[in-house]
Amino acid sequence: MEYNGEGSGDRFPSFIYRISMIDKNKITTIVEAYLAENQREDLFLIEVKVSKTNVISVVLDGDNGIKVDDCISISRFIESKMDRDKEDFELTVTSFGLGEYFVLPRQFKKNVNQTVEVLNTDDEKTEGILSEVTSEDILITTKKDKNGTRIPFAEIKKARIIIKF
After folding, report:
1. How far apart are alpha carbons 132 and 113 in whole angstroms?
2. Using CA atoms, how far apart are residues 24 and 31, in angstroms rounded to an integer?
């Protein structure tokens, strides 16, 4: 915080607040260091967001899901690598949520045999069982089409799990 020398009247000086935005890459590097140091190949980073006011959001996923304790440990690790005297921030570490769109091909692999909805680049929806995942594409099968439909990753606009009750 810095006083700019001017006042709005005689009693209330005006202040200029200078907040330096935390670099998103710094947080990404810290999370990746945690995963490597703790040999957590089963967990992976989905997204890091940093707002102009240093509200940091870290979203993780795991091949076998992610536990609350994992989020807590990663949050503490990030905080231990940051200096609150130099950088004021708010931190949230969460797991990837149901109903959200997949971000990484790795998420398809962990959801084989789940019902998914895929929107391709031509805005055509395909809903069915995610039966197979290769390095190039996915296979969606339905009760009517046991052979399935192959959809290359390059043609997937968005995809997510469909929850049916």
Report:
1. 8
2. 11
